[in-house]
Write a structure and sequence with these properties.
Length: 498
């Protein structure tokens, strides 16, 4: 079992592909150039890929666990957890999270009995937090409604389990239960598009259907789980997005993209020699409909072949949408104590982005700094449940964090309170020590915010202040952060003379 898919120099993360209306079966009606020819070619392809996989596959904890687990439900659970974690996330990042998860909840029943707070806490830093929530929802559904047995087929897995799409269902069914079903993730998409020279938009319904049909045609009925993992492993380790290792590819003899490269190189040489007749012959050897722009699977005429890209002309890269810009004013509210300092955290709503996680108090960053300060002050009084000396509220700088579809800028403020008797915070808020903060279910962005706060409060760096913000003294709340990157605004902000 092997992912961004969520990408980069050997994509090792994966994600769900859209499900076309047509189910798996024989390849869609297309030019033979984009198909596998006969049963003999398919048989040789399977043998070449599986032989390479048996020798070159990575030793990954979920593979070991699935291979050594005789109980089919526990085996499927171990595959399910890994596949959900690997969505949009690289293998190197997932390995530690997976190991800790399986140590804490080795069986489906263990996860079903956990709280959402515990799940969020372990998932913190992995991103795409709804995955963990849906994984737990699925575990509870299996225990409470399905008698503790995970569905055995891809269709039923996709139908009954929340957060399980077509790819994840196929991976679980083939790896854990041996169902002969193909899978298509980002790595497999890239491999198939190069193998069959598919240059059209890979996310389009037509191409998606064609890729799933190819995957179903190719999957080895004797070793479906291993074959699917081998195809994903090939995309992660050899047939990478950039700099693919074509000379090491076990199936390069089947690769139409590689043949296209050779034809284009030969055509370029012939052009230098002025042999137009040879160039025409080379064109005809490709997908014939592409000469008139009629083949829906070829590179579109508007995007001609680029000699410098070679096989990475395939697959066609979709236009990326710019992430939505969002600004938030956030306050690190620190309360000094005789033994340790505490920070105020509030819990996010139970739905939406970062649902249920804990963060520093925040408000939308609207208007000028004075407007933001007033809005923060009003929110802080509600959370603290009493008056605050807001004259010491200082703007420290900005932190930028990129979510999948949002470029989030946090305008960071800091406020330190002297030790004083205070009642318990209202529901949805709590005071935590720095150690408790690090262990809590907080987003990665909040850890960046705390870094900026601590960097500004350390004695090794002068805090940038606006003239109207008086200095705030106090002991250092945490370890010194060297190399703190400031925004341009903070960098150029004048520092008062001592």
């Amino acid at each position: 079992m092997r992912k961004p898919r969520k990408a980069g120099g050997g994509s090792q993360s994966r994600g769900e592909q859209p499900s076309p209306d047509a189910g798996p079966g024989t390849p869609s009606q297309a030019s033979p150039h984009h198909l596998f020819g006969d049963a003999d070619e398919v048989t040789k392809f399977r043998a070449s890929l599986l032989s390479w996989y048996d020798q070159a596959k990575r030793d990954l904890p979920w593979r070991r666990r699935a291979a050594g687990e005789p109980d089919p439900d526990r085996r499927a659970y171990s595959v399910w957890v890994s596949e959900i974690m690997l969505q949009q996330t690289q293998v190197a990042t997932v390995t530690g999270y997976y190991t800790r998860w399986m140590q804490k909840w080795p069986a489906l029943q263990d996860l079903a009995g956990a709280s959402l707070e515990e799940v969020n806490q372990l998932w913190a830093g992995l991103g795409y937090y709804s995955r963990g929530r849906r994984l737990q929802e699925g575990a509870r559904k299996v225990v409470e409604e399905l008698g503790g047995h995970i569905p055995r087929t891809a269709d039923m897995l996709q139908k009954l389990l929340p957060g399980v799409g077509r790819y994840t269902a196929g991976a679980i069914a083939s790896i854990a239960f041996g169902q002969v079903t193909g899978v298509v993730d980002g790595n497999v998409t890239r491999v198939l598009c190069r193998l069959r020279a598919i240059g059209a938009e890979p996310g389009s319904p037509l191409v998606t259907q064609h890729l799933w049909s190819l995957a179903q045609q190719l999957v080895d009925p004797a070793r479906p789980g291993d074959f699917n993992q081998a195809a994903m492993e090939l995309g992660a380790m050899v047939c990478t997005p950039r700099g693919p290792l074509c000379q090491e590819c076990p199936v390069r003899d089947f690769c139409q993209a590689q043949k296209r490269v050779k034809r284009e190189q030969a055509a370029a040489s012939q052009r230098l020699l002025g042999s137009l007749e040879q160039e025409k012959t080379l064109d005809v050897e490709e997908c014939a409909p592409s000469r008139t722009g009629l083949c829906p699977l070829c590179l579109p005429p508007s995007e001609p072949w680029r000699q410098d890209l070679g096989v990475t002309n395939f697959p066609r890269q979709p236009a990326r949408k710019a992430p939505r810009e969002q600004r938030t004013a956030v306050c690190v509210l620190q309360r000094l104590g005789s033994e340790s300092s505490h920070f105020l955290l509030v819990q996010r709503p139970s739905s939406g982005l970062l649902a249920g996680l804990w963060e520093f108090p925040s408000v939308p960053a609207e208007g000028s700094e004075s407007i933001q300060r007033r809005a923060l002050g009003k929110a802080l009084r509600l959370w603290v449940g009493g008056p605050l000396a807001l004259r010491s509220l200082r703007c420290l700088g900005e932190v930028v964090h990129i979510f999948s579809h949002i470029r989030q800028t946090y305008v960071v403020y800091g406020l330190t309170l002297e030790e004083q008797a205070q009642g318990p915070p209202p529901s949805g808020a709590r005071w935590v020590t720095r150690a408790e903060f690090q262990a809590a279910a907080v987003p990665t962005a909040m850890k960046k915010v705390l870094q900026l706060f601590e960097g500004q409060h350390s004695g090794r760096r002068k805090a940038s202040k606006s003239p109207r913000d008086p200095a705030t003294s106090g002991p250092e709340p945490g370890p010194v952060r060297r190399h703190q990157q400031l925004t341009l605004n903070a960098f150029f902000k004048p520092t008062p003379a001592p």
